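Let's practice the habit of predicting before peeking. Look at the sequence and jot down your guess about where helices and strands might fall. Then scroll down.
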Amino acid sequence: MISLPPRRQYGLSLVELLIAMALGLLLTVGALQMMLSSQNIFRTTDTLSRIQENGRFSLNFLSKSIRMAGYNSREDENTNGIAFWNGACGASNPCTSNGAGSASDQIAIVLDPSNNSDCLGNDVGDNNVIVNVFSIADLDNDQISSLYCRGFNISTNTWYSNAQPLVDGVENMQVLYGVSDPLANNVITNYISADGVTTWGDIGAVRISLLINNGQAIGSGDRVTRTFNLLDAPTITATDKHSRHAFSTTITINNIIYQSGDSNQ
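Done guessing? Here is the structure:
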């Protein structure tokens, strides 16, 4: 029997090792790029989803509240049936006000709530005409502007509670008021800001525009400059990493539009 000499074992050459390392590095870089791309897509999708959610909820909440403006307040001696309170609310005078320049507006909705609660759920008692005041602020000083609300008692000139945030990420709110013509079947003739309204009893509709971000203190996108135009406000310019979107709608005031002409303030 002939025995063969054992085969000699050879290791990898330096060239083969370098090629293997290069291929492994390319695969690792490709995997990292795919992971980073997936993270960016997820972050962008999440940001847009939050913006859409915040915008829809804000407009829906405000629309429902504005549609109830003037509800059961027609005989109230303090409001004379108007839908929006242009008197004082504590230190705010007038309570329904137009922000200076591109600053946010404030809207104060008059009603006798059927559920005996203000916009925050505070009990206001039976047959009490109140004012729900909506504004934009950062009262928590967390660098996140929010849509705030609080209820005001006109008769006692007191607030029912401190203002509380309803939706985070609402940066700006602009409001225009539709003036109806009682001599032309209450047709809305034009939209004006709060400081231009002379007869609040003739307001039959509201046009509102909101600037919304995802409600985070620090943006997650690229740092870019964007401009936004909200109704009659000057152009708003923002240079940061936040994504934003403008939402707008027009709401008819169901409880007032057929009452114009006999309630002025």
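How did you do? The chain has a mean pLDDT of 84.
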